[in-house]
Write a structure and sequence with these properties.
Helix content: over 70%
CATH topology: Chorismate Mutase Domain, subunit A
CATH class: Mainly Alpha
Distance between the termini: 59 Å
Number of helices: 3
Length: 93
Amino acid sequence: MNKIKLKIARRKIDQIDNRIFNLIRKRTKVVKYMLSLKQFKSQIIDQKRINAILKNIRKKSVRHSVDSKITSRIWKAMIWSYISYQRRSFKKK
């Protein structure tokens, strides 16, 4: 194992993780705004939208030769994490 190449690759992963973190921060701001638009807790889950997002991610994964199991799991975890966040944060108007 080449330790120098491994260290360089890990630095690249760290840089990518920082960009992902910043995107999640931006996504969270949009989710907070969307939550403020919802009048009822029942509006938090839109199964049709979730299915469309996951279908789109699967198509993109295949088109770009990325393992669709990985991307599907990541998106499902993200979606359900934000649903949980919205449920905890929902304020009845």
